[in-house]
Amino acid sequence: MSLPENFKCVITNWDYIYRLCRKIAMDVRSSGYKPDVIVALARGGWFAGRVLCDFLNLSDLISLKIEHYTGTASAGSGPKIRYPVDENMVKGKNVLIVDDISDTGKSMMFAREYISKYSPREVRTATLQHLTCSQMKADYVGELLDEWAWVVFPWNFMEDMCDVTNQVMTKDSLKVWTMEDIKMGLKKYHQIEPTYFEISQPGRLVEVLAEMEYRGLIRSLGEGVWEPVRH
């Protein structure tokens, strides 16, 4: 997948994602489909899969690991199965495959083809967010997105924001960074508005910087100033 150098990021939070899960559950019930088991695509589909089990009164939840992205907005060579599922868990059953987002659609198509080999009664798909540029649209969609963006979900917030912030600090030539510098860099390169960031994830940029220091990406100079650690 070809990505722009300075890609847009969208910050989400738990409440927002929970509402998308609720919408999908209502759509599944309205359609008359009664899944016996949910297959959550690891890692992004785990939270949605568990919440949908709660909303749909299901106890069987399977994890299917499909590797596609190698880092924040960095595409790998293509989707592949990392850990196979037990065919007895899906054979003869109504299956609902769940993921967080369909951007290329390749992971979902790959998962559906893979699960279909084990003779389920029926396979349907669901995704919290669907980009209109995707090669396939799931049967159930929480939200349509007509503009490509890297969505920072709450379950990978720290991972993504450490990556994105580190990228910002390598693009500009500042030797030291203040909190204001970092906020403006996130806005400049990734269209993350400081006010919206605080509304979605209040006070967590400080937490991100502490984690970056722990990972050896930056060094605190005290008094709200940091410097990148060049390797």
What does this structure look like?
The protein is of the alpha/beta class and 231 residues long. The chain has 2 domains: 9-150, Rossmann fold; 155-228. Helices cover 36% and strands 30% of the residues. It has helices at 14-31, 46-55, 106-116, 157-171, 179-190, 194-200, 204-214; strands at 9-11, 37-42, 61-71, 74-83, 94-102, 122-131, 140-145, 150-152, 177-178, 218-222, 225-228. The protein has a 6-stranded mixed β-sheet, with helices on both faces. The chain has a 3-stranded antiparallel β-sheet with strand order 9-11-10. β5, α3 (106-116) and β6 form a beta-alpha-beta unit. The model has no long low-confidence stretch (mean pLDDT 90).
Features:
231 residues, alpha/beta, Rossmann fold, six-stranded mixed β-sheet, 11 strands, elongated
Précis, in short:
This protein is α/β, with parallel strands linked by helices.
Gyration radius (Cα, Å) is 19 Å
Share of helix, binned: 25-40%
Unreliable stretches (pLDDT < 50, length at least 5) are none
CATH class of the largest domain equals Alpha Beta
Strand order of the largest sheet: 4-3-2-5-6-7
Using the 3D structure, state the CATH architecture of the largest domain: 3-Layer(aba) Sandwich
Terminal CA distance = 28 Å
CATH topology group of the largest domain: Rossmann fold
Helix and strand element order: EHEHEEEHEEEHEHHHEE
**What is the average of the pLDDT values?**
90
Strand runs, count: 11
Tally the helices.
7
- What is the number of independent domains? 2
Overall geometric form: elongated
> Helix/strand/pairing class, anyone?
alpha/beta
Content of β-strand: 25-35%
The biggest beta sheet reads:
6 strands, mixed
